[in-house]
Amino acid sequence: MGEGRILIIGGGLAGCEAAWQAARRSTRVTLYEMKPKSFSEAHHSPFLGELVCSNSLKSEDLGTASGLLKEEMRRLDSLIIWAAERSRVPAGSALAVDREEFARLITQALEAREEIEIIRGEVTAIPGHGVVIIATGPLTSNALAEAIMELTHRRHLSFYDAISPIVTSGSINFDIAFKGSRYGKGGDDYVNCPMNREEYYRFVEALKRGDKVPLRDFEEAMPFEGCLPIEDLSERGDDTLAFGPMKPVGLIDPRTGRQPFAVVQLRQENREGTLYNMVGFQTKLKYHAQDEVFRLIPGLERMEFVRYGSLHRNTFIDAPRLLHGTLQLMADPRIFFAGQITGVEGYVESAAMGLLAGINAARYLNGQEIVLPPKTTALGALVGHIINTYVRDYQPMNINFGLFPPLGQRGRRMEKRKRMVERALRDLEVWREAIR
Fold first, then answer.
1. Which of 365, 314, 298, 372 is nearest to 335 (CA)?
2. Which of 96, 147, 166, 367 is the most exposed place for a label (fewest CB within 10 A)?
C-alpha cells in the first residue's frame, strides 16, 4: 500500500466503477477483493461485479429517474453501464443482464487496465495512509465492519435484503403460464402465472404459515421498504400482494380471455432463456417452505429451483452525519465511501456512487478541486440524499424524482418530468466539461 495511488476496498459494482473512473484519469489504483479466498453468505462467483439480488438494473426509459441516472452514467463512460448493455437479456423497458457474462466483462475490462492492480484477499483494517475508497457494500465482512464502526464512532445502521428464487424454464408449466408484458409493453419478455381468487387466497394463507429463517440474537430486522420479503408483505393484509408484486392489471390470460385475479411474474435470468427469476419474491422462508408454498402457484407446481430465496445482511453508515457531498469522511478527507454502504439502494445507484468516488478521489490525489455534480442531475440528487441531515432516521433510497429540486412550474406530471430530464442532461454537460 503506497502513496501516489488510490486504494479501493471491495470489488462490487461501486468498487469496480470507482477503479475504472480513476484509471481513466491516469491514476494508479490497487483494488482489493476478498473473493475467491473468502465469500460472503450471498456471493458465489469469483468474478468482480457479481450481482446477488436480481439481474435487473431497472428501467431504461428516460421518463424515469432510473433511466435518467443510466443516461448520465453512460455519458460519463460508466463501466457498469457498458457491461450491462453488452450482456443484456430481454426484460421489456428494463435493463436486465446475464449475470455471469456481466461480471466476466467487468473483470476482464479491469484486468486489462495497466493502471489497475487487483489483489485477491480480505482487508480487515482500514489503511492508515494514502487515499482510500471503502466500497465493501451491504455484505461487508465482520472484521472490516468492525473497523468501519470504530472509524465512524459506531454511528451506523443496518438492515436486511432478501433474495428472490431462480427456477429453470423447463420446469414451468406453459399449459397454464403464458408470456407477455403488462399492456403489451416489451412483447413477451415475462412469464406470467395467473391465479383465480381461490388460488390466490390459498397461496397467501400458506405464505403466512410458512416456516421462516429466525434472526440471530445480534441481528435487528430493518428491511428496506422497496425490498421487503414477500411473506412480510402478506402480513399487511390478504389483498396486499394482489395490489403489489402480484398485481394483474394490464395482463390477459389467453386461456380465459380475462384479466386474472392475481399473477406471479418471472423474468428471464440469462441469455439462453433457461433460467427465470421470480419478480418481487424476495423471501426469508426456509428452503423446504419455499418448496411447499411456491409450488402452489399455478404453472409452478413442478418448479425446479436453481437458487432458493434467502436473507442477507445489509450494512450502511449514517452518511448525513459522517460524509461530505464529495463522499469524503468528515473526520478524515483522504477516506472516501462509495456504493450501498453510503445509503443508496439499488445496483445502478451503488455504481453511480462508485463513479463519483472514483472521479473525486482521483482529483483529490492529483491536487485538483473536487466539483460536485449539480443537484438538478440524478447524480447530484443522490448525493443530496446522502448529505440530507434533515432526515432524523436515515434510510436507504433509490433514485426518484422526489429527490430532485422542483421546477417551480405548473404542468402535468409527465411534462414536468420531461423538463426535469432535459434540465438534468443540460446541467450534466456543463459539469462534465468542468471535470475534464
1. 365
2. 367
